[in-house]
Amino acid sequence: MTGKRRAFADLNKLLNKFEANPSSVRLMLRPTRADFDTQLELDDYLATLGKVADTGGLRIEPRRGRERHNPPRIRLADADRVYEFLERKPSVAVAQDSLTPIMDQMVEPWMLKAVEDIRSAWSRGRDWWGIGPQNADKIRSIAALSLAIAQERHRDLDYRSLSVQVTEDSKFLERHEAPLVRFLSFGRELGAGTPRSVLSDLGLSRISVPLHISGPIAIGGAALPRSLPYIALPHGAVGEISLVRPPRALLTIENFVSFHRHATEANGLQNDMVLYTGGQPSIAWQQSIATLRQLLPDGLPIFHWSDIDAGGIEIFLTMERLLGEVRPHLMSVELAESAGYVPQEPPVRPGQYSGTTLENLADYLAEPGSRCVEQESIDPVAPCVS
Q1: Where does the chain show beta strands of DSSP type E?
Q2: Domain ranges of the chain
Q3: What confidence tens digit (pLDDT) does each residue in 153-189 have?
């Protein structure tokens, strides 16, 4: 590398540091003789920096004492002069120019807050959740997806269906889950977890999950044999389901592994009707359960089993809204204390679920040191109806 090229590279590094922390007053270069292969390269380097110093952009400070054999320190004096010398646009201006064309799409106040989060990152020369100002068109798509979800237009759609409807790219959402969740977080309160689990809690999954059901049912008049612990069928076919006999209880389960184990290990006699919700239930699932409710006797005990965390509480409350009186199954403080893990921080805020059926469990989860439970770690047992 020539001395001039090294000087330009170091000046850009200096501006990168300035953009990351504009309030810093001690930004400097500390070259050493070991950085240069020849004296000619060092002379060329210092001559290039000297030209910037002549404009007032840099201060050149000779070393003293034991360091006097090394080249001088180069301190940033006026960033604007260095930008001019490099013909480089400041990151603040880059962020502004990149975001201005998409501002007309920010139709809600919370979207403007999300844009300010992006502007803050880009103004400091940093990508925002993996997206830089050179890809500002992706922010347009993320904003459109976030607005669609905030307006509940994602209901009954999977990732690719929503993505192609909103962005005309069926894989865009799957490739940008994290920035989508970050943008959406300015518009609504979201649970903890991975971006995919957060979107699942909102009822948006990678695929549209069929209705999985176990129990004393018949399909098209043919009873489900006990050799089949459960069956999955399209939501549009739910009208083909009838009862062989009244179930003892209705149990809904958040996660598939737990549903599979419960159906095979705890519902082998098909005494209970057991349904897999697929996380936060989709609109199609909600329509199916409304149809199935017409088959069930009045007063049937209803239970729900979820993870013991914020997402599980949200899904339980959804079940209450859909089904009326619902009892928690394997969702207790005692179970959390005996079988749970301690998260990095409490998953819920104090008082967040005051007045709900799970108020006591939520208050426990709001305490430092409380334990969460992934339901897959719990062995299934049939709910107690007494």
Answers
A1: 28-29, 58-61, 73-76, 211-214, 217-219, 222-223, 231-233, 241-243, 250-253, 273-276, 302-305, 327-328
A2: 3-86, 91-201, 211-377
A3: 987 788 888 999 999 999 999 999 999 999 999 998 8
